[in-house]
Design a protein that fits this description.
Layout: H1 2-31, E1 54-58, H2 71-83, E2 88-90, H3 110-121, H4 132-146, H5 151-168, E3 179-184, H6 186-202, E4 206-211, E5 226-232, H7 240-244, H8 256-263, E6 266-272, H9 295-311, H10 321-324
Helix pairs in contact: 1-4, 1-5, 2-9, 4-5, 4-6, 5-6
Amino acid sequence: MISALMWLGIALLVLFILVAIAIPLLALAWWAGWRTRAPQGEPRPNDPPAPGPFLVYLSGVGDISGEYSTLYEDDFLEAIAERIPGLVIVTDVFAYSYVNVGMTSEGNLGWFWAWVNAVRLNKGSPLRRVGKLINLRNALHVAVSADRRYGPIYNYGVAEMILQGLLRHGYVLGSGAPVTLLGYSGGGQIALATAGFIQATLRAPVQVISLAGIMSSSDSLSRISALTHLYGTEDHNQRLGQLLFPARWPLFQGSDWNQALATGKIELVCLGPMCHTGRGSYLDATQHIADGRSFQAVTADEIAERIRRLGGVTAAPTRPAAAASST
């Protein structure tokens, strides 16, 4: 038994090393034209031109594809939509693939990731912790996105996928419709790193909202309208960004991050006693703060307010706190 576990550990370590090496190399191969993207398709008939505003949601490192979502996320995004009349939400972009291919659809390892995902969803499985490999794999993509050498290529690829997602959902180029990129956890890094490319293409107001995002500094900060970082007092994971990325350290006052912070382009907002994921997190509709609002409602309220500020949108009629917290 011990021998089998040892060999399994060695195999997983080798896989981790191979994936870590492959991510930047495959990005370079795509940039050189040696790899092609999966077809994205034409805009669907049920996606007519829309005035917006638009919200692009990039999930955390537990995501496996643009089609995958949790009930927490579905309810949360619905709560935001209820607060913003006409809001168009784009969720079908996979932040951890510059070609927008889900993990279970990968050519060589799709079967493996499908098995890992099935195991992590099986609460009775003794191998459930293997599901952390998905988080680890996506965290490597976050690291590549933040890398000064390979990041620009990777981020350009994801930005193209986001732009195609906006077009699929009715965005009209030249309309000036405001776009908000909402990145949760590792998705915060991808959102910030791609925002500059998106703003340069759309020439419209673009902002980034980081929901407990783990982010490095980025030259996108000189182009976008604003970056809002939302965090909770019980969330220790979101602090990793300011520890891991030197450009965010106060020592380097000339970095894009610290300059944006000094000019007020970055706003840090504490939402309350939220943790990173699961029960008690930003998406939890069962936990409440003193004014009666659920954690989910508090988060949705703050995000909706930022979207309204960017585009001058009128607020939807508010519901009683008890009703707003139900899902």
